[in-house]
Amino acid sequence: MLQGFRSLRHRELPLSKDSSNLFLKIMISIAVFLFAVTLSGVLSVNSMLVNWNYSILGSLTVQIVPFNDADRQKALEETLEQQQKVVALLEAMPEVERVVPLNDEQLQKLLNPWLGDDVNIADLPMPRLVDVKLKKGADVDYDLLTEKIANIAPQASLDNHKLWLNKLINLASGLKMLALSVLLLVVGVTSGAIFYTTQTSLGLHKDVIEILHLMGAKDTYVAQQYAFRTAWLGFVGGVIGVCVAVPAILLIARMAQQIEGGIINEMSLSPRSWLVIISLPLFSALIAMQTAYYTVKHTLERMM
């Protein structure tokens, strides 16, 4: 390590004058920008999947539909009676954490986006809804529960949200795998650019490297000069990429928050995720340093 820092001070190789430095800096900044934005998407989708599993898959809904259209008051009484039986059954289950039968005001709020504020739900044959929150890790036999509910409330139906939510989860998981593939592609392309620019630089400085070998310098000494110089370019390019990526991520997050419905709003970045994104310049510097070092070592072994 000390020899590497001495090589930075001596700089026998004029690497700072290489025309490829600007190209590498721009290439790395673009790569880090793409990496940061894609990584934020992966982390956001992952947090969304966790929130879905906790908030939606950990809950179920019971709907009790009015059956008697001729006598609306009697239908309401029958519906409320069956609702009470369902609530009592669910509250007695050890897997259930909370049972909330929705009142008329809550139903009105749910229907307002579709029916408008001027519609009075008292004039409609409204079903009664029961929101059920399960305990974390609860294992419920939904077929058996559906049978029990049907025995005490023939007009009731159970929805555990699994059917439609599993489709969304599969879609989100597919998008996450696609994003991870993009991340690997960005790393591979950037490493390839560093590899070929380093080889080109070695060809340009071949005479100086031969003189250094005659003076007793080893391949490791030359490789360290390239490694530390490329690491600095990787760090500077990474800082530029992150500085451009952070506003872009915040802009995308603001646009996502404007989408109503609650599903997209489950996407968020935790402080740990932001720390990972902000630390990307260190990772880009490390990747650039390792790629340049092993490129020089491998190339010099073939040249000399």
Task: Throw out a few tags for this protein.
2 domains, elongated, disordered N terminus, 304 residues, Alpha-Beta Plaits, alpha+beta
If you had to describe this structure to a student in words, what would you say it looks like?
With 304 residues, this protein is an alpha+beta fold. The protein folds into two domains: 2-54 and 165-303, no CATH class; 59-160, Alpha-Beta Plaits. Helices cover 69% and strands 8% of the residues. It contains ten helices and four strands. It has helices at 2-10, 20-55, 72-91, 104-115, 142-152, 162-204, 206-214, 219-257, 271-278, 280-303, and strands spanning 59-64, 96-101, 128-134, 156-159. It is elongated and about 105 Å long. The two termini are 24 Å apart. Mean pLDDT is 79; it is low at 1-9.
Structural class: alpha+beta
Number of contiguous helices: 10
pLDDT averaged over residues: 79
Estimate the helix proportion, in percent. 55-70%
Tell me the strand percentage band: 5-15%
Strand count: 4
From the spread of the alpha carbons, the general shape counts as: elongated
The succession of helices and strands, N to C, reads HHEHEHEHEHHHHH
List unreliable stretches of 5+ residues.
1-9
Largest sheet: 4 strands, antiparallel
Strand line-up of the largest beta sheet: 2-3-1-4
For the termini, the CA-CA separation is 24 Å
Radius of gyration: 31 Å
